[in-house]
Hints:
The chain is built from ten helices and seven strands. It has helices at 13-27, 49-58, 64-79, 115-130, 148-160, 172-175, 180-183, 197-208, 214-217, 221-234, and strands at residues 3-8, 31-36, 82-85, 137-141, 165-167, 187-192, 239-243.
Amino acid sequence: MAEWIYISPHLDDAVLSCGGMIRQQVQQGERVQVWTVCAKENPYPQLSEFAQILHNRWETGDETVAIRRREDIAACGVLGAEPAHLTFYDVIYRRLPGGAPIVTCDIELFLPPEPAEMDEGRQVLAPFLDAVPAGARVVGPLTMGGHRDHRLVRALLEERFPGVLYFADYPYIAQYELDIHEFTQGMEIGYLAEVDEAGLQSWQDAVAQYASQISSFWKDETDMRAQLRQYWLTGEGCRLWKKSP
């Protein structure tokens, strides 16, 4: 039985990007786990102004991470995957060694991570990555869109797993009309899934569990389902990439 471990930067990325594939793999009797890196409870007494703005937008208050964890558990349940929540802070909660917030606006979410962030990520995630079973197929983000946490996760996975597979980051690929070929130079298709209508339905149902995040990318749930269908038709959410030998 094949074993898959999707390393998701946030509490939604793997399901948004790969929900149809995950469902298909589970249906085939394969074990699928979704490990979310940035899932540690946030330090509310130190919440930055920018983090507070996002909490207000999501209407999640001081229970933001707990709510998002519950959403992720529900979404993985729709697909039949096993969720795991690791203990690294989302970048909106992380701070520089002097105490200043790392990000203070949307633009800073898409800058490369600081060396101190990378060092902290290695230290925090080492025990988890050490526990990846031999033979498991590890999947991580291509970093389309360039989100800081996606970049950090990809870099750390590449340090540990030479054979890592990559998923296109949805909805960034569609939202910014990005060309997959610009992000896959020197790569080839490493896995191809045939996701049918039932798989799309499960994918849409899973994404719908992330109620707090719908407004970040879509007008409403109906819009999400329509746009996800359009993305499914492109086939980009049904394959994984790997570096060519």
